[in-house]
Amino acid sequence: MLSTSRPLATEASRLARHATEDLLRQGYVIIPDAVSRAEIDLVAAEMAPHFEATPKCEGDFYGWETTRLGGLLTKAPRTRNLVLHPEVLGIVETVLSPSCDCIQLNLTQGVRIHPGERAQAPHRDEEMWPLKEKAKPWLVNVIWALSDFSFENGATLLWPGSHHDALDRSLDPSCAIAARMKRGSALMFLGALTHAGGANTTKAPRDGIIVSYCLGWLRQYENQYLTYPPEVARTFSPDLQRLIGYCMHRPNLGGWQGRDPVTLLEGADPIGPHVDALPPMIAAELKAHYGQAR
Fold first, then answer.
1. Do 275 and 215 belong to one domain?
2. Which residue would you say has higher pLDDT here, 51 or 270?
3. In angstroms, how far apart are the furthest CA atoms of the chain?
4. Beta pairing, strands 195-196 & 157-158
5. Does residue 5 lie within any of the structural domains?
6. How many C-beta atoms lie closer than 10 Å to residue 294's C-beta?
7. b/e burial code for range 50-72 (CB count within 10 A of at least 16 → b)
């Protein structure tokens, strides 16, 4: 048993390392067949009635022939497996963790590009945080294909390496590549990569799910606490509770009554002491400071 599991684990580690390197170098990577066709079909079945019931978007960014919906963790519970996908989450943590104490879920969003939709304008998702110069990645997006993605049906357009340059909305479309992939595959790309939803010139919709992760000290795109208030978050696994933001980002950021907000989900009394949540370095510095003072 050990002789077969160790090589598999080593191979998975090697693939994850190469995927991370590609993500950082070219700004994106596609992971084919990240989940089985059977699993993605079950997710698609949960999403289908919500796509049908949700009106099309209104706006030049969201699109006029596109349907988007959020709050997928409760609308389509099987999306929780995508959000917590171990290999994908491992790559995200490798990329983002050097800049934060913990990562968080930025959003979940279902996207249906209907026939006749035009291509989006080139953009970067890190534009939501108005700091132009970012030394390290702040955001990693994952687009899960619910249907096969092709150039013709609106596969995401990517400008490889553009995360190294200043944003330019007039980039030559011929320099972009279309993220062609089969359903069940995952496209991962940095928030600083210039990209755009493609035009759908076919007669069928193109369905996908965006799962977005960001640094734990940023304001999330989707307000997770309204989307999943405590009575809902209590039904989630501890890992998912913390990922959506019910956790303290050290030092002492995002607390509830001066404590880790997960204690709210556990039924803690709101009247209690504030409790330090400090990273080891700051904790050691404070101990040294008071030690010297004494």
1. no
2. 51
3. 76
4. antiparallel
5. no
6. 5
7. bbeeeeebeeeeebebbbbbbbb
Q: Which domain holds residue 154?
A: 12-243
95 & 227 share domain: yes
172-211 pLDDT per residue, tens:
989 999 999 999 999 999 999 999 999 999 999 999 999 9
Same domain, 232 and 252: no
Closest CA to 34 of 108, 191, 144: 144
Does 1 fall in a domain?
A: no
- Check whether residue 269 and residue 147 sit in a common domain: no
Residues 16 and 110 in one domain: yes
Work out how many domains the chain is built from and give that number: 2
